[in-house]
Task: structure prediction
Amino acid sequence: MISDRLKKTILNSLSLNDYDFKDDTLATEVPGWDSLNHVNVILAVEKEFNIRLKGIEVLRLKNVGELQNIIDEKLKLKPQ
Amino acid sequence: MTIASIQFFLFVLVATYIYHSLALKHRAKYLLFISYLFYLSWDIKYAALMSLVTIFVYFTALKIKTAQSDKDNGKLVKLAVGILVLLLAFYKSYHFIQGSLSQLSHLVGLNFLSFPSKIILPLGLSYYIFKSINYLVDIYLNKIDPETNFINLANYISFFPQSVCGPIQKAQDFLPQIKNLSEVSPDLLVSGFRLILFGAFKKLVVADRLFEEIDTLFVYTNSANGAHAYWLIAYFYTIQLYADFSAATDISIGVARLFGIQSPKNFNNPFYAPNIQEFWRRWHMTLTSWLSAYVFTPLWLRLRYFGKFGLCFAILTNMLLIGMWHGTHLQFLYFGLIQGALICVSTLTLEFRNKFFNRHKTLNALRKYIGPLITFHMVVVSFVFIQASSLPAALLIIKNFLICLRSLLLDLNLYEFIAKIFKVGLYKSHLARIFISLVLMETVHLAQSNLALKQKYLSAPLFLRWAAYYFLIIFIVFLSNFIDRPFVYNLF
Result:
């Protein structure tokens, strides 16, 4: 499930008021989430969650659910 | 045979008839057979090179599946992609390589060595190389599994309707279709024939006739009104290129449908784009999305901590590659650089412009019309680099185009301007014909992209729809010269 924090980060990054994100939502389905804005979303996610995503991890993402999973994994590995 | 020739149409008709009389289990093999037959009709060397690439890609993909680690996979994919890119670069830049090799052989005293001054780019090479790279990289990115059936993969790489001018279909779109071939629905067949007919209209009535007008206009470029001839040439070039390329795409998508294969869209009314980055989302869409996925996004990801500099570097690299895809002559590099610079400026100022226009409501209403007009003119100027025979020729056209545009906008003597246009070999009857055929072309384009309008047309009485088809056929019969002129994008 997509967390409110991730949802808010993506919405802010794309200057959107609202969007109903599901696990299987594709970037191409979201208004404004094009190739130019894709990296902006990733940068905003990295800043918000204070994590670093590898290029290959980003390129392998299939949908928003996978982005949520990878954030959760990174946060688990982070020293508290 | 070009894909707008009578021979090609007869070839497709016979191939389609046999295809539909075969049992489903034989159809994939048969498709592969006719694809190779098509290549053999051009040159046996083309077919041989493509079969070698197919074998290479097939076994590399299987190797990726069995590699020990992700790191090994990465190395293997990089090596394979490197080989494919080198092959493409060799043919695309042979004139450079040939010059260097000749000089080198003279330097070391091997004067007896000779290198052919020119070699022909194998038909569809860049399209099937791009498809191959897409297939291998997507396996590495875990987006698809390697195809174990050689026939299916060979069909993906060689599928003849897409081989001449694209579109560049993704493996994950094509392979499921070829694996599940079923009876082609009558609706799909009819839509295929409809697209072929419209493509033939665009090629024979719009593109080829504009080509002839451009030829005539060139004769008048040295006359007293030469600048006006150049002004028209620049516009005609752009429209000719669009009609020619989108015609090839329509025919290609239409023919693919006759065999039950759905292809991706390649154009989406590009000349109505409000800005230059949007134009590139609507023009040659499969090439731009390919480059975006495998060049622009990975590069910008890597440079993302460099901010706007990283973004501009990725955009410029991407557009330079688009330029170089057309060829390695200087004018193509300029084309890429100009487009890259325009996109950078437009992207970096977009937020500011949006805020500005939101504060000024009247200007915002005008922006809807002015934006596409400015974008169109940016395209007109830069497309001269693609069509012109050399860099000086391109610069001469652009210089005169801008002089004319300036005089049209500032002198405001429209009557005199129009009078001069008819003194450079353009007859009023020809202009009327061009105008009517363009209105017809754009009406169909808008109807294709408007779902409600499309539904209305499809649910119209049969005689009305047939009347539209006959109308196009009459146009083709009476307004075409039926010269088998190659498509501009065949060259790339």
